[in-house]
Amino acid sequence: MEAARDRFQEAETLKAGGELEQAAAKYMQLVNDMTKRLVLGVETYVDFLDAVYNLPKVVEGGTPSLSEEEACGMQRLVTRSFVCLAEIYDHMGEDVQAQRYRKFMQKAGMTAK
Q1: 111, 79 in Cβ contact below 8 A?
Q2: What pLDDT, in 10s, does the model give residues 56-89?
Q3: For residues 79 and 105, is the Cβ–Cβ distance under 8 A?
Q4: How open is the CA angle 111-112-113, to the nearest 5 degrees?
């Protein structure tokens, strides 16, 4: 979790410095890595898709390799990263991409906290 928070902060620093494309790349890399970690142990593609679209439910009670606290913390960072990605694309004037992120968040049951 500490490494994930450090990576999130690095993306935040890039975003604050106006380096939006680099920040977006860092957020997306973080989302991909954390999502893979959260669904570690999922055995079929169908189960993987179910997990990706139901991350809040996946992390309840922890995962086979993470405590509930770690899993919930990672899920919060995934959600915050998606929020930041939508904000970046809004700022860049790419409304369609920003809306795609928000639509995915809604479909996956992610709420910003």
Answers
A1: yes
A2: 777 777 777 788 888 888 889 999 999 999 999 9
A3: yes
A4: 110
